[in-house]
Amino acid sequence: MVQVFIQPSYGTPEARRSWTHTLARAVPFRDAGLGSADSARLDALHLSGRARFWGATAKHDRRMDSVTAGDVVLLTGRKHVLAVGEVGHAFRDPAFARHLWRPDPAKCLWSNVYSLRKYWPVRIPYEEIWALPGFNAGDNFMGLRFLAPEKAAVVLAHIAPDLRVPPSGDDETCDVVV
To answer: Could you tell me which of 73, 63, 68 has the C-alpha nearest to residue 8?
Structure first.
């Protein structure tokens, strides 16, 4: 079964800058010093040499080890799910993460990175998610959270009708069906 996780990604000025750099548009990844296995996997998934990326800090290493191609991430901020992404390749490369986001060295450094092979900009208020079975009103989805399979199924069933499945291709940005 597809794993679904919720990841805050727009709540702070630094996160919003990172969103602008690696989620709002696809970025080049060739010639970024990636290891050969990660470079080959990204090349196979993103033929243009560009992809959207997000990630997580080292404290999430164990959970991020379970992320695989096809998993779904809900990217959140400002009390909304702002985008839905389908994971392409997940890997650990602190140097590449620093290359992507250039964090303040005094702050947490990201080590886990994942590409998105599909990306849907959405605007789903938290209240809509709270109304689903198994969710609680007032939950602001703080921190990286992996959903239990039953919650994942409920979320996917709820958001799937709102997402247009794109034609196969590289770095698909999909429109929201209205």
So the answer is: 73
**Tens of pLDDT along 52-94?**
999 999 999 999 999 999 999 999 999 999 999 999 999 999 9
Taking the C-alpha atoms of residue 78 and residue 93, their distance in angstroms, rounded to an integer, is 29
Structure tokens at 134: 């198994």
Contact criterion met (CB below 8 Å) for 75 and 7: yes
Structural domains of the chain ordered from first start:
4-173 (3.10.590)
Token representation of residue 87: 């994971």
Name the strand (E) or helix (H) holding 56. Answer: strand 50-57
Q: Tens digit of pLDDT for each residue in 11-22?
A: 889 899 999 999
Tokens of 173: 């940005």
Contact 7, 65 (CB under 8 A): no
Contact 71, 46 (CB under 8 A): no
